[in-house]
């Protein structure tokens, strides 16, 4: 799917074959990483710290690859990022493509994977803040 989108956009622009090959190469890496992530999530239980670290590492590499492709494309077309969606607009020919932003989905996957650890770090801060606010409001009465 990504290859078709990229080739349609780049064929109507003047782009060298070197750049097209670079984008295709990065797209293949991204695809392999996404397949690896899906297999990892399907097979492994994510209760293990090491499986979470592996998933996070693969997700960060895939996320970075995805946004490098978008950065390269942004030299030739206008890219708009909205929540969970990428809009690629070719102003020269008046067309555009809307697709899922896998980078944002991967960021959400990382947050969901580490949610217990994140809450464990944030909860004491809110507890202390709550105690402080009670103390401040309690002394003002």
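^ structure tokens above, recovered residues below v
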């Amino acid at each position: 799917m990504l290859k078709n989108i990229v080739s349609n956009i780049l064929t109507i622009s003047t782009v060298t074959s070197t750049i097209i090959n670079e984008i295709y190469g990065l797209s293949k890496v991204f695809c392999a990483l996404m397949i690896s992530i899906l297999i990892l999530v399907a097979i492994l239980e994510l209760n293990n710290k090491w499986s979470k670290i592996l998933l996070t590492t693969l997700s960060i590499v895939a996320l970075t690859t995805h946004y490098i492709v978008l950065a390269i494309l942004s030299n030739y077309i206008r890219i708009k990022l909205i929540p969970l969606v990428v809009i690629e607009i070719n102003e020269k020919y008046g067309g555009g493509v809307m697709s899922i932003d896998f980078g944002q989905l991967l960021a959400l996957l990382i947050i969901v994977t580490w949610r217990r650890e994140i809450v464990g770090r944030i909860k004491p801060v809110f507890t202390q803040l709550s105690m402080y606010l009670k103390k401040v409001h309690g002394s003002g009465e």
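Residues 36 and 42 are 10 Å apart (CA to CA).
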